[in-house]
Amino acid sequence: MTDEFDLIRRHFAGLTPAGEDVLRGPGDDCAFLRPPPDRDLAVSIDTLVEDIHFPATTAPGDIGWKALACGLSDLAAAGARPGWCLLSLTCPAADEAWLAAFADGFGALARREGISLAGGDMSRGGLSITVQVAGYVERGRGLTRTGAQPGDGVFLSGWPGRAAAGLARSLASTGQPDDPLIKALDRPQPRTRLGLELAGAGVSACIDVSDGLAADLGHILTASEVGAEVEATALPIAPELAAAGSRAQVREWLLGGGDDYELCFTGPYDLDIEGLAEAGGIAVTRIGRITAGGGLQLVEAEGGRSTLADTVGYRHFSS
Ligand code: ADP
Ligand code: MG
Questions:
Q1: Which residue, 27, 201, 224, 254, is the most exposed by fewest CB within 10 angstroms?
Q2: Fold of the domain built from segment(s) 4-138
Q3: How many Å lie between the centroid of ligand 1 and the Cα of residue 113?
C-alpha cells in the first residue's frame, strides 16, 4: 500500500535546493528555519483551485510551476530574495504519474529560483494547491503598494495580456504546444531579479500584475491615495499579442487580463529603466505618471481620455 509518506518521500524529497536558512526540512512535525540576521521576513500564501485558477485540462507540470510562480511573484513585488516555501497539496487520488509531473514543474522553478521546500501537507479531495513562500529583504526596505507620489512615473515589466490571450486560446483549443501566449499562461516567469533591483532603486510602490493591469495599478492608487494617467500609446504590446485579436480585444487582455505576473511599480519619473531592464533581465516600460487624484485615466494618442474602473480585473466574490 502506498501511503502519503511514501508519496512525499518519492516525489518531494530532494526536489529543491537545501537552503542555508532551512536547518531541517520535510520529515518532522515542524521544519526549523534560521533566517539571516538583519533581514525582514516577507511571507505570502496563495491557493490555486482547479477550474477557478486553471482549466482542468492544464498539464500537471504546469500546475506545479504555476503554484510556485504565484508566490515567487509576490516575493518579487516585495523586492524579496526567495528563501523557503511550504506546499499543501489536496488531490483526488494518489496518481503517481500526475504527482511526478507536478513535482517536476514545481522543482524546476524552485531550483532555478533557489527556493527550498521546507515542508507541507497532503490530503485527498478536489484538486487544490496552497503554497506559502517566504523571502528576505534588507531591514525596512521591503516594497509595498503604499508610497506612490504625484509626479512619479508608472512603470511596467514585460508584455502583459499574453496570459489572458493564451487562456482564450487554450479554452478554445486553438493553441499549438509551443504557442508563446499559452506558454505565458502555463509557465509564468516571476520577476525575481527585477524585484531585487527595485528594492535598491528608489521605487516608491510596487505590485505584481496577477488580476490585470488596471485592477492592480488601481490597488497602488488606492493604497497610496493618488491617481494616475496611463498613455495608451506607451503600453507595451507583444507582437504575438497584437496579432491575436482586434485592437479592442488586445486592449482588454492587456488592461484586464490577469496571470502574467509582471511587475507594475512607481518611482522617480526619469528612473534608469535601461539599467533596471539590464540588471533585472526583463524589459521595463514607463507607461504614465502618478497624479494627485482623478482615479486611473487612460489617455489616447489624440488626447481623449477615459476613466478605468478598478473592477476590470478578476474578482472572486463580486456578483
Ligand atoms: P503531520 O501529521 O505532523 O501533519 P504530515 O503527515 O502532514 O505530518 O507530514 C509529515 C512530514 O512531511 C512533515 O515534515 C511535512 O512538512 C512533510 N510534508 C507533507 N506533505 C508535504 C509536501 N507536499 N511537500 C513537502 N513536504 C511535505
Ligand atoms: Mg499534516
A1: 27
A2: 60s Ribosomal Protein L30; Chain: A; (3.30.1330)
A3: 22
